[in-house]
Specification:
The protein is an alpha/beta fold. The protein is built from 15 helices and eight strands. The chain starts with a strand and ends with a helix.
């Protein structure tokens, strides 16, 4: 079954580019940084063939979707409301939402704010956390950056990382995809100092493509899109951390929807979140139906191990 790509404008006047296939119960898949709806290419046809309507948007700031200039538009609360507007535009009353990386807090915020629109939740890489950071994120990142290079800190200043990454999308994407994969320990970059370094200075050299999980053609697609769009839209999600922190107290933090968690066992997100993060997730998700860590796999779990992810995802969907 072949997926199609199209643009649509929601009731708020926001233009989305989506990739979709199939008919049936809706599954809407949200990517993170530096991703696209294309990051779910292995899931879209599998879901459609199994009798589901698969939808993978380019998230705000990415690809063919609109790129708001105001950083406030990238805060989770605003993104969640945009996703509800997208569901309305697609005539979807309720969907299972899948989120990877930044897409995970985006979809769980929908589940917190609009629980009636969420029939199930699948979190990839990032475990649900009901707690806020102990201090303002930008202050925490500044403190952490005094010990080692921290991309979370480096990305905060508008224009700095943008200029570096936009200057060589091919080199950046190849190095980052490799660094975050199961073939490398991303936390090795923490040994580098902050002063005098950009992100490309600390990311490891990457082997030539193709890799076991990424072909040259697939990689070239990412390069082509980000060469056209640049990275500012994606970087603005990092710059909204403080606003997410400020809004944290405005919502009740518990997920009522049935939820599935899948991650690569070697994903640095788990190491950075701390080993207690998976247990903490259980306290905020009463209907947590599985925690699956896939061996020899890094951050891009749905691309590195598509067959495993598809099997777990379809089993979860069929049990709802």
């Amino acid at each position: 079954m072949s997926a199609t790509m199209r643009e649509l404008t929601d009731g708020d006047g926001f233009t989305w580019q989506i990739t979709e296939a199939g008919a049936g119960p809706a599954v809407v898949m949200c990517h993170g940084f530096p991703g696209l709806g294309y990051s779910y290419r292995h899931q879209i046809d599998a879901l459609a063939e199994a009798g589901f309507r698969a939808v993978a948007p380019d998230m705000p700031g990415y690809g063919g979707s609109d790129v708001p200039s105001d950083v406030a538009e990238y805060a989770n609360d605003r993104i969640a409301d945009r996703l509800v507007a997208l569901l309305d535009a697609l005539d979807i009353e309720q969907a299972v939402l899948v989120g990877h990386d930044f897409g995970a807090p985006a979809v769980w915020t929908v589940a917190e704010k609009h629980p009636d629109r969420v029939g199930g939740l699948v979190l990839l890489a990032v475990p649900y956390s009901p707690d806020a950071m102990p201090i303002r994120p930008s202050e925490l990142f500044t403190k952490m950056s005094k010990k080692h290079f921290l991309h979370l800190h480096y990305f905060q200043e508008p224009g700095v990382a943008d200029a570096e990454l936009d200057s060589d999308p091919r080199r950046f994407l190849r190095r980052l995809f490799f660094a975050l994969s199961g073939a490398y320990d991303y936390l090795h970059i923490w040994q580098h100092p902050t002063d005098g370094n950009g992100y490309l200075d600390v990311l490891p050299h990457a082997p030539c493509l193709p890799w076991s999980w990424l072909s040259q053609e697939e990689f070239d697609h990412y390069v082509s899109v980000f060469t056209d769009t640049g990275f500012t839209g994606g970087l603005n999600w990092y710059r909204a951390y403080d606003q997410n922190w400020e809004h944290h107290a405005d919502r009740h933090h518990e997920i009522a929807a049935p939820t599935l968690y899948i991650a690569g066992e070697a994903d640095p997100v788990i190491a950075m979140s701390g080993p207690q993060s998976l247990e903490k997730m259980r306290t905020g998700v009463p209907d947590l139906r599985g925690v699956h860590l896939i061996a020899h796999t890094g951050h891009f779990v749905q691309q590195e191990r598509p067959e495993d992810v598809n099997r777990l995802l379809l089993d979860f969907l069929r049990d709802l």
